[in-house]
Design brief:
single chain; 252 residues; alpha/beta; Rossmann fold; 7-stranded parallel beta sheet; 7 strands; 15% strand; binds 1,4-dihydronicotinamide adenine dinucleotide; Sc_DH/Rdtase_CS
């Protein structure tokens, strides 16, 4: 097993499920000291069990990434435990329901923006000073193909992910000369609990999505996690402020 993240201190949010869980597992497998955060404690327990059963380790912490106090406590905890922070994968997210704009409940709109976009701002606000103290670092933010398109019914989600793309570019611009690289990952239709639950509610939508993917299948969490690891590795050392679309060709 390659150890390209040996001794790197890595924080993954949304580590209790899907892409985040898989990224946490791969970072641990490749030698990193991994911290996993999620609102879902049961999910974190499962992630921890998966990683420990393979002989690696992870430190998990229940965190609501939309709350500044939670995010600050999380990053303070990483710094106190590990002495620094090298890599942050700001990945937690929710889709919200599907409603036309005029029917979209305002509270739900605000919640999706808070969990998907405010969280990335809060994460970077506290991660950047920690990385500067460590002499540099790498940040990967999870956007979506919805950062490039306008999926009907998903105004909050699309707006939040367009926002993640914009924040990523600003953060990359502000930090390129300070030793911190920032990029975004844009997954397409990926078979995680998020999508499986939505597909169960709306099988026709799931079928439509599959026919719209040139690869004729959804992505697997590991395929997205591998892309996140690449974005945070030295192999992408000259990549700044970009959004890597990993979608089976859906947006070609
Ligand atoms: P998932 O639902 O399997 O995992 C998301 C995790 O985020 C869950 O464990 C959930 O508990 C956590 N989370 C939700 N709200 C939180 C909060 N307030 N604080 C902390 N953790 C919270 O979904 P998946 O697919 O792994 O999603 C990961 C990221 O990928 C999300 O940002 C999502 O928007 C994005 N994405 C996923 C796609 C897909 O097809 N699965 C497509 C495009 C983007």
């Amino acid at each position: 097993m390659s150890e390209d993240f040996k001794d790197k201190v890595v924080l993954v949010t949304g580590a209790g499920s899907g892409i985040g869980r898989e990224a946490a597992r791969l970072y641990a497998a490749r030698g990193a000291q991994v911290f996993g955060a999620d609102l879902n404690e049961a999910g974190l327990v499962e992630t921890e069990a998966l990683i420990r059963s393979a002989g690696w380790s992870i430190d998990t912490r229940r965190t609501d990434v939309s709350r500044e106090t939670d995010v600050k406590v999380l990053i303070d905890h990483v710094q106190q435990s590990a002495g620094r922070l090298d890599i942050a994968f700001n990945n937690a997210g929710i889709t919200g329901g599907t409603h036309r704009i005029e029917e979209y409940p305002v509270e739900e709109f605000d919640r999706v923006i808070a969990v998907n976009l405010r969280s990335v701002f809060l994460g970077m606000k506290h991660e950047i000073p920690a990385m500067l103290r460590a002499g540099g670092g790498v940040i990967v933010n999870t956007a979506s193909v919805a950062a490039l398109t306008g999926p009907g019914g998903m105004s909050a989600y699309a707006a939040s992910k367009h926002g993640v793309h914009g924040l990523t570019r600003v953060a990359a611009m502000e930090n390129a000369a300070r030793g911190i690289r920032v990029n975004a990952l844009a997954p397409g239709w990926t078979e995680t609990p998020m999508v499986v639950a939505n597909s169960a509610q709306n099988p026709a939508f799931a079928e439509l999505a599959r026919t719209a993917i040139p690869a004729k299948r959804g992505g697997q969490p590991q395929e997205l996690a591998e892309a996140a690891l690449w974005l945070s590795s030295n192999a992408s050392s000259y990549l700044f402020g970009q959004m890597l679309v990993v979608d089976g060709g859906m947006t070609i």
